[in-house]
Design brief:
Layout (H helix, E strand, L loop, with lengths): L7 E8 L5 E7 L1 H5 L5 E5 L6 E7 L7 E8 L6 E5 L1
Antiparallel strand pairs: 1-4, 1-6, 2-3, 2-5
């Protein structure tokens, strides 16, 4: 995720797995390899809750988006919609 122009990203994040919490993070591949979440964009609650994040695209230059498991032992499924 990288932008040099003006604009915002609208993201809707939804956890689909009961008993887990997941976070949507932005950072570099190196930061993720080290297990870091340098910029938390959103955190989930239980299934069926949708969390809206609106962010200035310039605020995370050169970043990649991914999820970071927060709690629970089951593999988590989630939906991410970006407009």
């Amino acid at each position: 995720m990288s932008s040099s122009g003006d604009g915002v990203l609208k993201m809707v994040f939804e956890n689909k797995t009961s008993g887990t919490n997941v976070s949507l993070c932005a950072g570099t591949l190196d930061e993720f390899a080290q297990g870091k979440c340098p910029m938390r964009l959103s955190s989930s609650g239980g299934p069926s809750f949708q969390f809206l994040t609106i962010i200035d695209a310039k605020s995370c230059p050169g970043s990649r988006s991914m999820r970071s498991a927060g709690s629970g032992t089951a593999p988590s499924q989630f939906v991410l919609t970006i407009e």
